[in-house]
Design goal:
The complex is a heterodimer of chains A (305) and B (293). With 305 residues, chain A is mainly alpha-helical. Helices cover 74% and strands 1% of the residues of chain A. In chain A, β1 and β2 form a beta hairpin. Chain B has 293 residues and is an all-alpha fold. Chain B is 73% helix and 0% strand. Classes of the chains: A mainly alpha (305), B mainly alpha (293). The interface between A and B is large, with 114 and 100 residues.
Chain lengths: 305, 293
């Protein structure tokens, strides 16, 4: 009787699709209008035409009449032309910064999850603090330290290092990216490692695996999905970053694709090129995004079951 | 599990140096920038004694007396509160709806709500800029466009936080209420919604901090000085010959988000204790960071 009753109410809760759809509709409409349609608008500008008199981009709302002449030009430019340097630089900077983030971040997350002991909460709080410090403030702090008479520059001069940090230095930009994004890597890494079943590592050790073997053969394979997801989570905004570069270098010699998008859309009269670069960047990142969404969906399915 | 871990703690392990080194590296530069906001001279790099001139005493340049800076502060606050006002009800409803609908439309809605979270801001900002200047031209750039943009970006955050709570609550409380004769609406209003409160509070804190710190979307959709926010003002003066007033303004921004965070953590921790849930700083932190530690 009781089971029957519960089954009935459960059915009642689940079978009110119209009510739940009503709850979802306003937000969904909002996201269609202001997230999905804007991508369509980007495509319409990218594949539109240019007004012959005012040189402004005229969007083509009908996909059947899209014009791909300018698109071809921009894509060739990215592959082999003047924008090639920007494309290569973007990838190289992000790969370097990601590698450094993992080299620094993984040991920290590992220590926090495994060996922090009584100090864990304190360390966790200190590691979360940069999250809540404005990104621009953190960059501004380094601009002060690295400027010509800044504390760090003066300090380094004692060792004979006389380097112009803020004038188109790739090292500064890459380290700036690391400094900016590493907090966003450490926390998800920590969450992944914290969730691991460490008894399996202990078992491997008991069965004679050396620490390094246990790490390579048990810890890494078990945490791989989480590591990849955390990596993607910081790679995506890094690929679209332009402000780090703008604040720490400001030189054309270190420009990334984000700087070009910012330039074409906000400072030039060729928004069509900006729209095309936004499309190129989105297509490139779509790969990472779908991978990320799939892996998190699998994880959440495991949690809810 | 925890006791096992703590027996493994090794004092002086090299990893402990790495973690403390990292903490110093991540926090000391910011602390130095904060200290220099109290510099008596015009330099942001050479210390010339303590003063409050960039905060309050200078009649023109101090952040609380300079007209443009005050305008930016008020723009930032208005934008943050307006975003909260719109995104909170929208996000709660979407979280409940998207968690309970089934079938193909459920996949669509869930994909649509998680996409903004992982789309680089520059893409969203650029797309909205082109949309507002060419398609929805009724929306002028400036405050209104910035509001729509920030709500779009923050919506996903609210949905993620509230949905995590919905999953952990489960359906049994509502079922019990229904068994006892409550209507579907009453079960939601008097059982489910009150239980969602910690996730709502966490969303308020996270969204406020995100919007008040937001640079990319707000900048793409701004219309000059009339809609200049604090981050925009900081950004445009970092590389110029700005005075320590810049450091003071950035410090103010950090202080604001920390105040909101601390109030939020305190509120969450008290709420949890009062309602017999696992309380304390760690649980409150988990609410805000979305980590189950």
């Amino acid at each position: 009787m009781d089971a029957l009753h519960r089954g009935l109410t459960q059915a009642k809760l689940k079978n009110s699709p119209r009510l739940w759809a009503g709850f979802a509709i306003p937000g969904t409409v909002w996201l269609i209008a202001l997230f999905a349609i804007p991508f369509y608008a980007v495509a319409c500008v990218a594949f539109g035409t240019i007004d012959p008199v005012f040189r402004d981009a005229v969007p083509q709302w009908n996909p059947l009449s899209w014009d791909f002449v300018q698109a071809k030009q921009i894509f060739t430019s990215l592959a082999t032309g003047p924008l090639q340097g920007v494309a290569i630089r973007t990838v190289v900077y992000v790969v370097c910064a990601m590698t450094l983030c993992f080299v620094i971040g993984f040991p920290i997350a590992y220590f926090l999850a495994r060996h922090a002991g009584k100090r864990k909460l304190l360390l966790l709080v200190l590691i979360i603090v940069p999250f809540w410090v404005n990104y621009l403030m953190r960059m501004l702090a380094w601009v002060n330290l690295l400027s010509v008479d800044g504390l760090f520059t003066r300090f380094m001069r004692n060792f004979g290092v006389n380097y112009n940090w803020l004038d188109g230095s790739p090292i500064t930009v890459i380290l700036g990216l690391v400094y900016g994004y590493i907090p966003f890597l450490i926390l998800p890494l920590y969450a992944t490692l914290e969730r691991l079943d460490w008894r399996l590592v202990d078992a491997a050790r008991d069965l004679g695996a050396k620490p390094r073997q246990a790490f390579r053969l048990v810890t890494i394979p078990m945490s791989k999905a989480g590591l990849v997801a955390a990596g993607i989570l910081i790679a995506l905004p890094m690929f679209g970053d332009y402000y780090t570069n703008d604040l720490l270098s400001r030189s054309p010699s270190t420009e990334m694709i984000g700087n070009q998008i910012d330039f074409f859309l906000n400072a030039s009269t060729q928004p069509q090129n900006g729209a095309l670069l936004v499309l190129a960047l989105s297509l490139f990142l779509l790969l990472f995004m779908s991978f990320y969404l799939r892996s998190t969906r699998q994880q959440s399915r495991q949690v809810t079951r | 599990m925890n006791t096992l871990n703590s027996t493994r703690t090794r004092r002086g392990s090299p990893l402990a140096f790495v973690i403390w080194g990292y903490i110093i590296w991540s926090l000391v530069p910011v602390l130095i920038a904060v200290i220099y906001s109290f510099n008596d001279g015009r330099s942001r790099t050479v210390w010339q004694g303590f003063s409050l001139r960039w905060w309050i005493t200078d009649p023109y340049a101090s952040i609380f007396r300079n007209d443009e800076t005050r305008n930016a502060i008020s723009n930032s606050l208005v934008l943050a509160f307006a975003t909260l006002l719109v995104v909170t009800p929208l996000g709660i409803a979407l979280a409940i709806g998207s968690q309970r609908i089934r079938g193909r439309s459920a996949n669509f809605v869930q994909g649509l709500t998680s996409a903004p979270l992982i789309t680089p801001e520059i893409v969203v900002g650029a797309a909205l800029l082109l949309t507002f200047t060419r398609l929805f031209t009724a929306v002028p750039l400036g405050f209104f466009a910035q509001l729509l943009g920030n709500v779009t970006f923050a919506l996903a955050t609210v949905v993620v936080i509230v949905r995590a709570r919905l999953v952990s609550i489960g359906a049994s409380f509502e079922e019990a209420a229904r068994d006892l004769g409550a209507t579907r609406w009453q079960a939601m209003r008097f059982v489910l919604l009150p239980m969602l409160w910690p996730s709502v509070m966490a969303s308020l804190v996270v969204v406020f901090a995100t919007v008040i710190d937001d640079f990319v979307i707000t900048s793409f959709l701004s219309a000059g000085v009339s809609s200049e926010t604090v981050p925009l003002r900081i950004y445009s003066s970092v590389r110029g010959g700005a005075t320590p007033a810049l450091n003071a303004l950035a410090t103010l921004l950090v202080l604001t988000s920390f105040t909101v965070l601390i109030i939020g953590l305190f509120g969450l921790s008290t709420w949890r204790k009062r309602h017999g849930e696992r309380g304390g700083l760690r649980a409150a932190l988990a609410d805000v960071t979305q980590m189950d530690s």
